[in-house]
Amino acid sequence: MLAAIIVILLTLVGVKLVQWVRIRRYEQEFFKRIGVPYVKPHLVFGSNHILRDRSNTQMAVITKWREELGEVFGFFSGGRPSLVVSDLNMVRQILIKDFHLFSNRPSMVIKAEPVITTLVGLRDQRWKDVRALLTPTFSMTKMKLMAGIMNEKIDTLLSIFEEHVESQKTIELYSSFQGMTLDVICECALAIKSNCQRNQNDKLLQAVRGFLQNAVNNFIMLAIYFPFFGMLLSVLSNKLAFSGRMTNMIVKHLKQVIKMRRNNVGEKTVDVLQMMLEASETIIEEKVGKEALSAIPSRKVLSDNEIIANAWVFLLGGFETTANALTFTCYLLSKHKNYQDQLYHEIISVVKDPTCAVTYEHVSEMKLLDQILSESLRLYPPVVTFIIREASEDTQVGSVTIPKNTGILIPIWDIHRDPKHWPDPEKFDPSRFSASSKANSTRHPMAYLPFGAGPRNCVGMRFGQLEAKLALAKIILNYELDLAPETEDPPPLTVPSVAINPARGIFMALRRRSTPTPTNP
Ligand code: HEM
């Protein structure tokens, strides 16, 4: 009897396995069917195991595939196809011209809160509504108000720099900038006054770092290879409210702050959270009453869940990206002393009195600073695998008919280093972004995408740029940067989730500048 049951079970398993293999093989013939060259997939992993192999960066793998297969090719994650597009006319059609057909990112393999309620994960009309509500939060006027908070945190960073100068120690820049950007975004987006710069063991800093390092974990891998597992995890994680330590910590805190802010309606705090609360359904209801609220179209109000989820995603979006941008810009300046000197002269000629604060207006005047940051973002775009879209219907793009639901990846690392678009691409040359170069350039507008492009580009672009510029201006005004001998040069990189990180840090020797003499611009 037992033997019969075992035989039946084994037969059932065998049949299911054969069915699964057939379906997977069919899925993995996708690119053959649409006539696009592709990376030959492994039955279970697709090509994901090659992309995630830690001995190589994802950029190096994609570059190699692109060299072998051309500007448009495909690869599989499990059975899920991704079309990699670096033909710039096609990129423009996807990101801008036919945006209405490519407005979503590919759906997450585990559809869990809070990420599915954020700008990153929302889809279709609700994404449009929430984006329209949140975009004004990052307007220039609002950014000017945020500059105060940014400057306060940058001053703490400089005091840490000063201690290193005093004790003649080199400083590891990446972790220092992570502390600073987390302190900035915590206060601006989450109303948390953190002190991650002074305390590198701060619980939140550790939790956010851990989250980003493990964002692509074994559960995600299983969900990629076996979508059924992803569906199961989505249900479980939402039913059991099972989120990571960092997410729980933030959600709990935000709930308290929202409650406090509501009880204190008169108090005006200038931060991203407050700006979101202005559009909150509960606050509007308090102001105008239930009946009037029901007359306001739902697209004009944010639920508490949406406010919390988006404050959480701003923390993730604003922390690592800007820390990366600052780290690699300082690295490049330490390697190109001529630019460091020229930049110093520009800063001092604009600020005039070095003891005064560097303001939003000051950095807006600094043309070379803008060129240097732009060139650094070309060579080291902080986010390398996140310009992704999904076709909402079968669409002809260039010579390819992209079927509905196909995921698309725009490989910016390759585009930014393609000699077709950037002569001598490995060279650090900020003059590529001077006003005259730009005016005379025939460069394709899609050849430069550090913040993505089109209606779904980076919502925090101005915030990140302002924070990076204020910090760079203050650093270069006060210190000379020399690459320390313990830094591997060029620095090895890793991509734990979607952003590049220096694998073993960037150490810098700092020299305090003698009190500068103001010069005329
Ligand atoms: C140097 C700093 C930054 C860089 C290089 C950067 C880069 C990017 C890129 C490449 C994208 C994808 C765009 C696309 O798909 O076309 C993106 C999206 C996004 N970024 Fe940033 N980012 C930076 C700073 C920030 C900051 C400071 C915040 C928030 C305060 C932020 C929040 C977001 C959000 C929410 C999205 C998703 C937008 C949407 O789907 O509507 N980013 N970012």
Automatic annotation (TrEMBL):
Its domain of life reads Eukaryota
Q: Name one GO cellular component term.
A: endoplasmic reticulum membrane
The UniProt keywords, alphabetically, are: Endoplasmic reticulum, Heme, Iron, Membrane, Metal-binding, Microsome, Monooxygenase, Oxidoreductase, Transmembrane, Transmembrane helix
Give binding positions for heme. Answer: C458
* CDD domains noted in UniProt: CYP3A-like
A GO molecular function annotation here is: oxidoreductase activity, acting on paired donors, with incorporation or reduction of molecular oxygen
**Pfam families attached to this UniProt entry:** p450 (PF00067)
Q: Where are the transmembrane segments?
A: 219-242
Q: Its membrane topology, per UniProt?
A: Peripheral membrane protein
Where in or outside the cell it occurs: the entry states:
Endoplasmic reticulum membrane; Microsome membrane
InterPro entries in the record: Cyt_P450, Cyt_P450_CS, Cyt_P450_E_grp-I, Cyt_P450_sf, Cytochrome_P450_3A
Name the needed cofactors.
heme
Family as reported in the entry's similarity comment:
Belongs to the cytochrome P450 family.
Its biological purpose: Cytochromes P450 are a group of heme-thiolate monooxygenases. They oxidize a variety of structurally unrelated compounds, including steroids, fatty acids, and xenobiotics.
Descriptive protein name: Cytochrome P450 3A24
Annotated gene? LOC108679136
